[in-house]
Amino acid sequence: MLCEQKKTLVSLKKENNLKWDQLKAAQDLHCSTLQRTDNALARTTLLKNESEEYQKASDEIEKNVETVLEVIAEFEKDFHVLEFKNKSAALIMSTLQSDINNWQQRTQQFMRTRMTHLKARKELMEETKEALKAAHIENKQLASNYEVLKKTLLEAKQESVSALNDKNQAHNTYSYYTEVQ
Which one of 1, 68, 105, 153 is at 20 to 30 Å from 136 when CA atoms are compared? Predict the structure, then answer.
C-alpha cells in the first residue's frame, strides 16, 4: 500500500506539476492576450484619432477645392481681359519698336555728321595748337631778344650817364680854371 500511495503521490505530483505548468501557460497566454488586446485598443484609438484628423483635413481640402475652382473661374475671366490687353500691348510694342528703329537710324546719321564735324574741329584744334606752339617759341625768342636789348639799353644809359658825368666834371674843371685865371 505504501508503494501504491507513493505511486499515487508521485502521479498526483506529476499531475499537479502538469496542471501547474498548464495553469502557468494559460496565465502567460492570458497576459499575452491582454497585452495584445491593450495594444490593439491603443492602435484602434490611434487609428480612430488619425481617421478623424484625416476626415477634418479632407473636409478642409474639399472647401479649398471649391475656393480654388472659384479662383480659377476668376482667373479665366482675367485671362480673357489680359489676352485683349496683350494684343493691344503687342500693337503698342510694334509701334514702339518701329519708333526705336527710326530713332536709331537718326542717331546713327547724327553721329556720322557729328563725327565729321568733330574730326574737322579736331584738325583745326591741332593746327591751332601747332600755331600756338610756334608762337610760344617765337615769343620766347622775342623775350630773350628784349632782355638783350634791355641790357644793351641799360649799358648805353650807364655809358651816357658816365659820359655826362665826365662832361660835367670837365666843364666844372674848365669853369674852375677859367675863374681861377
Answer: 153
Q: How do the pLDDT tens digits run along the chain, 181 residues long? A: 677 888 888 888 888 998 998 999 999 999 999 999 999 999 999 999 998 998 998 889 889 888 988 888 898 888 888 888 888 889 999 999 999 999 999 999 989 998 999 999 999 999 999 999 999 999 999 999 999 999 999 999 999 999 888 888 888 888 777 777 6
**Cell 650817364 sits at which residue?**
161
Which three cell numbers, joined as nine digits, stand for 2? 505504501
Q: Position 90: which residue type?
A: A
Q: What Rg, from alpha-carbon coordinates, does the chain have?
A: 66
State the cell numbers at 23: 495553469
Q: What cell does 171 get?
A: 666843364
Amino acid found at 108: Q
> The whole model's pTM is what?
0.33
Eight-state DSSP code of residue 53: H
